[in-house]
Amino acid sequence: MTAPEFPGPGSLSWQHYGRRRVLAAVLRLLVLQTAHPMIGAAVTAHSSYGTDFTGRARRTLLSMETIIYGSTALRTGEIRRLNRMHTRFTGLDNLGRRYDGLNPEARLWVAITLLEHLITTAQLLGQPLNKHEQHDLHREWLDLTREFGIASDLTPHTLAEFRTAFIRHTTNILENTIAARTLLDARFLRTALPSGLGMPAPVAIRLTEATLSADLARRLDLRVSEWQRAEAHTLYRALGAAEQALPDRLAYFPHAYKAVKAGRPW
User: Fold this and answer.
1) 236 to each of 49, 91, 208, 215, how far by Cα in Å?
2) Are 129 and 122 spatial neighbours (Cβ–Cβ below 8 Å)?
3) Which of 82, 85, 192, 235 is the least crowded, having the fewest Cβ atoms under 10 Å away?
4) Looking at the DSSP assignment, which residues form a beta bridge with residue 63?
């Protein structure tokens, strides 16, 4: 039996992963990832996000562009590089619990957040993916998890299972980690992102908090008002309208645009 072909030109992955609009809720994505106790501990101890947030974010975006839009050689080389890097991320967190950068469940959570991020960001911006698009994007996501070597018996094989796994994490596993608290600190954001996220740090934080589920907000010790959620709805819809007016050369990140325009990996 031949392995499934990795999503390429014409796929929903190519259509969505490389668009700049993924930045609209990127702080939410990072909070979701670092609220996982293993990931939060590894980020706090080993990542450069505290001293070079912008550089770390740029390298992460380039890595994702390489995996989705790069040639087979570039993609497999980048995945090997990431795996080698994460072998160094081991230790004990502030509560004495062991963490491991190659822990299968933690790696699966990162993968889950990437797909959930695409679906939720589209919804927030007033451009929701329909049921068939979500199912197709999930099937392509399964190919991505296989490329990363995530065990099949851990992976949610249907969209319903995927949603259940996401809710299970946000209600039972995620915690108010040091890394997640740091990302929601306006003083940190002002220092880490001098040019901002296109908006003042307190606004970015309010928007992020408003997009978290009530269960997760409680786990992160956040108080989110209905006014906050209404404000986020209005601002995200405005961002979505502006994004839809952009030509493709501005709507996509550079390497993604190059690949999409050429109709082949770079």
Assistant:
1) 25, 39, 11, 22
2) yes
3) 85
4) none
pLDDT digits 0-9 by tens, 189-238: 888 765 556 678 888 899 999 999 999 999 999 999 999 999 999 999 99
Q: Which of 91, 106, 104 is nearest to 38 (CA)?
A: 106
Residue 264 lies in a domain: no
Tell me phi and psi for residue 44, to 5 degrees: -60, -40
Contact 201, 189 (CB under 8 A): yes
Tokens for 159, please give them. 């969209």
Q: Are 30 and 56 in contact (CB under 8 A)?
A: no
Please name the residue ranges forming H helices in 70-103.
Answer: 72-86
Q: What is the pLDDT of residues 86-134, one digit of tens each?
A: 999 999 999 999 999 999 999 999 999 999 999 999 999 999 999 999 9
Taking only the tens place, the pLDDT of each residue in 185-195 is 988 888 876 55
* Tokens 């994004």 -> residue: 243
- Say if 243 falls within a structural domain: yes
Alpha-carbon distance of 249 to 247, in angstroms, equals 6
Give residue 188's domain range: 12-257
CA dist 116 → 65, 136, 180, 183, 254 (Å): 18, 13, 18, 19, 23
pTM (global) more than 0.85: yes
Q: What are phi and psi of 61, to 5 degrees?
A: -65, -45
Q: Tell how far CA 108 is from the center of its chain.
A: 12
Domains in the chain, number: 1
In degrees and rounded to multiples of 5, residue 195 shows phi and psi of -85, 0
Closest CA to 20 of 55, 74, 57: 57
Establish if 141 belongs to a structural domain: yes
